[in-house]
């Protein structure tokens, strides 16, 4: 008997209420609405308010995903690089607040690729018979890592959360995730990192120590090349041609990265699903947030062949595919 597949059965997302528009950033830093829009595709992003944490956002998204389907979850996998505390993981607090009893719960940190890594982890739990139903959440408050004076990172990042419920099912039914393709390249960790605050370099009194440093142009090049490469691999494993893909839901880092990757793949520009204009780069939340927005506005319809591909700090990247299931009316 083939191993059970992880099938999408619930979806939800959650955003902080505070909106930060480009003109508000331009009023404070040496940048402009026009530069941000044309270089990144972002018009506005959401920012967690004081006291609003990654767990709060994850609980919001997780509750909606669970409410959209019957039943709970035996396992919670939280993809995040911004947990509420350095120790312990945040997933157990999310599981407790969602009333999931003593469900297994842990974090996965693959930064902006975290959601695809967490999906693969959940699929492995289901295939191995360890879990029947898994709640996978991508949640980040990346703005807490950003130097408020750094015009190269402030415009890019936003906060948010997205979640899916996966159930054990058959590989050939709509909603089944897989195959997967996952990779990393740690020698380029310093292209996008927070250098201090871990065991290698301890936090000092210099507040600059704890902020994200990004070599944007290099990250841009790696992102396009790796997402295209990984997408080709996963399509080949799935037995799909590029032309079979109806929707490309890539990590929302920069609209130009999404467009360039689609072009490298030979995919029409209108296959690209994008909500980056409204939310910016929300790290691990980006793909499930884009999925939820796209199914609400009808961009994603039952039967669509969907390619997911992510790239992030680490460096990490990964891809998977699914045929979009009928999830009913979004609440
Ligand atoms: O999830 C993964 C996380 N990160 C990413 O994926 C980021 C990937 N990288 C990017 O999205 C782009 O590299 C950026 C949006 C960060 C930058 O765009 P770019 O087209 O690579 O610009 P650049 O860094 O080459 O800078 C072009 C110019 C420079 O000025 P000069 O040297 O040409 O005079 C920068 O100093 O734009 C300047 N610049 C800005 N100007 C206005 C850089 N940031 C800004 C800014 N406003 N915010």
Structural summary, described in words:
There is one protein chain. With 331 residues, this protein is an alpha/beta fold. The chain has 2 domains: 5-169, Thiolase/Chalcone synthase (Peroxisomal Thiolase, Chain A, domain 1, 3-Layer(aba) Sandwich); 180-323, Thiolase/Chalcone synthase (Peroxisomal Thiolase, Chain A, domain 1, 3-Layer(aba) Sandwich). The protein is built from 9 helices and 13 strands. Strands 1-7-6-4-5 form a 5-stranded mixed β-sheet, with helices on both faces. A 4-stranded mixed β-sheet has the order 8-13-12-11, with helices on both faces. Helix 4 links the parallel strand 4 (75-79) and strand 5. It is globular, with a radius of gyration of 19 Å. The mean pLDDT is 96. The structure holds oxa(dethia)-CoA. Residues 31, 35, 39-40, 112, 151-152, 155, 192, 214, 216-217, 219-220, 223, 251, 253-254, 281, 312 line the site of oxa(dethia)-CoA.
Give a short overview.
This protein is α/β, with parallel strands linked by helices.
